[in-house]
Write a structure and sequence with these properties.
five-stranded antiparallel beta sheet; mainly beta; single chain; Jelly Rolls; three-stranded antiparallel beta sheet; 125 residues; 0% helix
């Protein structure tokens, strides 16, 4: 359960260095869980979206095509979620042709921690 102001669980799908990265996932903000995407290229831009009431699990689809990264999410269970059920959260420029680091993270900088489960992570090149 996320319960602090900035508790979060996220996929960090693209990182080139400390000034160029993207992270996306569920973040507790203004008293409830929200879908969050941060895009950083020297400066950060943060987008948040309301999730349907009772949403605690999300599915992510993060795709890099050339110089763009597309972030989509769905609250529909895996077995029931066709591609059309994914909502576009961000479309961001990232320099093409550079190696990218990808992985998962969670943090509770202002809370006491929380349980997190990541399932079905697949990274392909």
């Amino acid at each position: 359960m996320l319960n602090g102001f900035r508790d979060r669980r996220a996929l960090e799908p693209a990182q080139f260095d400390k000034t160029c990265w993207i992270k996306t996932g569920i973040e507790f903000h203004d008293g409830r869980p929200r879908f969050s995407t941060v895009v950083t290229r020297d400066f950060s831009s943060w987008a948040i979206a309301d999730l349907p009431p009772g949403s605690s699990d999300i599915r992510l689809a993060v795709t890099r095509r050339g110089d763009a990264v597309e972030v989509r999410y769905s609250t529909v269970p895996a077995a029931d979620a066709p591609a059309r059920d994914f909502t576009l959260a961000a479309l961001a420029y990232l320099p093409p042709g550079r190696e990218v680091l990808a992985g998962v993270m969670c943090a509770a900088p202002e809370g006491g921690g929380f349980p997190v489960t990541f399932r079905g992570l697949t990274i392909t090149t």
